[in-house]
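To: structure subgroup
Subject: Chain for Friday's discussion

All,

I'm putting the inputs and outputs inline so they're searchable in the archive.
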Amino acid sequence: MEDEAEIYDGIRAQFPLTFGKQQKSQTSLETIHNATRRSIASKNSDNKTDEALPSVSSSSKAWLDSLRNSKSPNPSPNGSVIGPSPGPVPDEDDVVVGPPPPPPGLGEDDDDDAMIGPPRPPVGPSSDSDEEEGEENRYRIPLSNEIILKGHTKIVSALAIDHSGSRVLSGSYDYTVRMFDFQGMNSRLQSFRQLEPFEGHQVRNLSWSPTSDRFLCVTGSAQAKIYDRDGLTLGEFVKGDMYIRDLKNTKGHITGLTCGEWHPKTKETILTSSEDGSLRTWDVNDFKSQKQVIKPKLARPGRIPVTTCAWNPEGTCIAGGIGDGSIQIWTLKPGWGSRPDMYIEKSHSDDITGLKFSSDGKTLLSRSFDGSLKVWDLRQIKAPLKVFDDLPNNYAQTNIAFSPDEQLFLTGTSVEKESTTGGLLCFYDSSKLELVQRVGISPSCSVVQCAWHPRLNQIFATPGDKSQGGTHVLYDPTVSERGALVCVARAPRKKSVDDFEAPLVIHNPHALPLFRDQPSRKRQREKILKDPIKSHKPELPITGPGHGGRVGTTKGSLLTQYLLKQGGMIKETWMEEDPREAILNLNLFLQSQILRMKRNDLIWMDP
């Protein structure tokens, strides 16, 4: 076999390297996931080896510990052996790369005793650090790797993942919505579509329909929009008349929306809340009318904004967070109206930013601007079960999310001016009601939205500030499925000659000189004003007698009149005569003419 290989190599060397079918070099999955691994230091500061390792899953951690403990106490001095070496130390010339061969006699065992998978950890007394790690890993939080879906220029305030986990929507304060597709995305992590639902209005919430064929977009305007799965607009709900005082008589919201959510079971019903102090349910098949108007219970007459809203998992209850700090819950039943079935007065001291029901509908989580997260038992609403403080919140879209098995719930924190912790993602045990773990997402950006997808087993968080924003996807290759694992392993396609396209030259009619607009004459006028000859002011006419070669107005304003007057051809004496004397002279002239005619008997006149 060795001779055949040498012959093949010798023949292959005679041909150019481009001859024959070439195999593309593929990067191993281990290398790819190492590039996206999060470098989080371990809690045990005494063990330096653990500090250098990133956070890994429980199975990978046990495997690494077994490799460390299986190393021989006397390693090879030349350092040429890589991996554990239970056998005899080889000579200096024999360099062993990779795991050593098994010791003799190992293959004589029965097939039933064969080991499958990573080796078991050594049996011995476990330290306190191992117990703490086991306590944390029993929740199996996917935190070992991370990718970032970029594209927004401001903080991401809305997040929605469809039920299959293939498409992600992110809305931002930069007025845009970006659509990401894990199945069609490569390692560049670029969005395939960008939308601007309403010009000049922030995107405040996004929600998929139960069938994931449409999604709801809520902005700062008074009208919500419905898009299909590919981002095409299907319709826009009507806006109400702002001059009608009774909100029940308006056809829609009259001020900006604050939140919106699709019905979890019915694909034709959605819920919206607004700053006008009302909640409304809509039928997506009729954009011109609403189904129900809900006015919250208020201590005093007026309009207090509804800051957030939520459905319970069965779609039978509606919860609303009111601007006065109260939480009100309505049950959908025949003949139901605006009177709430549950009213929690002064649940928070500030505006409520997020509400979340548990799967059994007995527990409600609330998040507020006052920096707290409260757990409520809906069977006893007089006081919360637990209050978690020291959770800064500066954004009206900060939400709460449950883990797929609801053992944990998580929320994000905002960055304060003099804080050094950055934006965190806090995990709490839902049964013990205690803090489990705090994960740093960004050192300088606040975490607003968060989600834990049940099918992908991946955590989504949206940190950002006034100048940047993105969606961080946390996953673990050993426990997560699809999603980020698909797009990270797909390398971008290389450009070929067929991809070259000559730039198209479009000649439109307005490019011809005949249709061009006249150029501006401003510069030409400025140039004429600077010319002393062209900008010379015309001389005014002389009112008196002429001088300096110029003709005055007394001798005529025109040259011809002046010449005729000087030659005696034009005489104007009427200005110098006396009118009375001229009339008398005319009378004498007429009398002399009459006497002359009488003498000649040419006319008969009465005496």
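Points worth raising on Friday:
The longest strand covers residues 434-442.
The CA atoms of residues 91 and 407 lie 55 Å apart.

D.
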